[in-house]
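Raw record, unedited: Esterase
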Amino acid sequence: MLTESAIQLRSNAPSMVMRLVKALMRCQTPVFPLDAEGFRAAMAGRTLPVDAPMPDSFRKRFIVEESEMLGHKVVTLHPKAGPAPWHMIYFHGGGFVRPMFKVHWPLVAAMVTRCGISVTVPLYPVVPEARHADQDALADAVWADLAARHDPSRIILNGDSAGGHMALALALRLIAAGGAQPGKLALFAPWLDLGLADPAIAAVEPHDVMLKIGTLRACGALVAEARALDAPEVSPLYASTDMLAALPPTRIWTGRHDLFIVDSRSFLARLRGAGVDARLYEYEGAPHVFMAILPTREAKDALGLLAEFIAD
């Protein structure tokens, strides 16, 4: 059941800085093409994109560990004092088709410093050059490696957008496998239904400065390959109630000018109905993955709530 404690409106109006950033975003080249045809054209025969490099300054600010798993780079940042009691696996967003963005690195750094945690970032391969199954395989390998060395109950899974999908999907696969489970789950503007089936999403689309329904459906179909878009392994919004009931305490952060707000609310209702300790934090006028816009009041509040969630 949804209650005031389940959904919290953390910001009644966008901050001045957020308004300015959104205005600038409208004037810039969009991150994703604005329609399905443009998306398909962009994916066809493109040059393989590469991950934004980690800033050199991080080597002075943090203890940096770099490894390779399944042929892909995995980066871990520890506080300068050493490995923290809580360890996060963070999956970056990008529609499964874009690599690590430059803005993701400052967000990762902010989580290390603000929350006092260690953070592992898998630089996973992207679709269509790789398959979505390859992304999941790397996620599974990173979890298995960390869980063998760190108390699983002190591991938090996190991700933004498509990365939120990956974090949740990993948690559900771990439940299905019957093994060790993460202690907590944090989702930043998660992409929960690759088909965006809910018609209510159309009312949000004019306000979203980054995402468009047609583009996302084309992207979702590319990621799903021949699988049904409403299959739980493709769209975790449709996971069974029994599976959802086994999830750890979960927090979701989404802006109200984000297409994914509709499915975030639906998913929260399903989680609460399954008895999960779950809450959704909403921010009026905030765009997709607003928590990466670090100077804003909204991002600072989101990171503060994440720190409280981990410390609780």
